[in-house]
Amino acid sequence: MAVQIVRYDSGQLTRISLRGNTERMITFVTVGVVVLTKRVA
């Protein structure tokens, strides 16, 4: 479920970037951490 939400959010990234650049950056960092955690696990 989380992966689908993340991918959907990434698709909207370009449109929302003008609005909430900081929020998207935080989301990107969080996604990166989750991806790394899943790879290590």
Summarize the structure.
The chain is mainly alpha-helical. The chain has one domain. It has helices at residues 2-17, 21-40.
Q: What are its keywords?
A:
41 residues, 88% helix, mainly alpha
Q: What does this molecule look like?
A:
88% of the residues lie in helices and 0% in strands. The chain is rod-shaped and about 35 Å long. It is mainly alpha-helical. It has one domain (2-40). The chain contains two helices and no strands.
Topology:
Layout: H1 2-17, H2 21-40
Helix pairs in contact: 1-2
Give helix and strand order, one letter per element, not per position: HH
Can you tell me the number of structural domains?
1
How is the biggest beta sheet arranged? none
- Terminal CA distance: 18 Å
What is the CA-atom radius of gyration, in angstroms?
A: 11 Å
Structural class: mainly alpha
- Strand percentage lies at under 5%
Count of individual helical segments: 2
